Request: fold
Amino acid sequence: MRLFIAIDLPFEAKKEIVGVRELIKNKGGIKWVEMENIHLTLKFLGEVKEDKVSAIEKRLRAVAKDTEPFIISLRDVGGFPNVRESRVIWVGVEQGREMVYELNRKIERAMEKLGFERDSRFHPHITIGRVKRGRVNVQGLKFHYPSIFVKSFFLISSRLTPSGPIYTPLREFKLGEG
Ligand code: 3AM
Reply:
């Protein structure tokens, strides 16, 4: 199964994030992330054998227990590989960035012990669209969403289908509890 670890967002935040689509002029070649699929990825694990899942869960429980809930806010629109010629369009994290980085580092360390490769290029972002044709300039696009209380993260399975990925949360890890 294909797995990743992510923070879910409140319904209201997802609704506002979907509104960012309207700010972009050349929408032609963009595949938008479905509203219910919007999330903040902490770590992509990739293809994982089913018998490894309980070890992953055990490590993630320990990480969650060791992390207090925190607040993030969202700010502005960015792009990978860069803002003027974006292939991936995203909304940025403003407040709470350091906490998100810290949570990513803890997860990277925990998953490394299970043989997953560490990703050193982590950049907190919420993907809203992927550019299938050409490149899109998202420079200067403004967005703000205040005060999201992050009280958990999820282990999620991703099944790729021709009509888009299907994300299924397998388990929730409550911060401060595990
Ligand atoms: O939604 P975002 O962009 O944060 O891009 C994929 C998505 O992240 C990323 O994992 C998340 C859930 O699919 N992803 C997919 N394949 C990947 C890979 N080979 C990957 N990240 C790193 N390496």
In short: The beta strands are 2-8, 30-32, 39-47, 70-81, 86-93, 125-131, 144-150, 152-161, 164-174. DSSP finds three helices and nine strands in the chain. The mean pLDDT is 97. The longest strand covers residues 70-81.
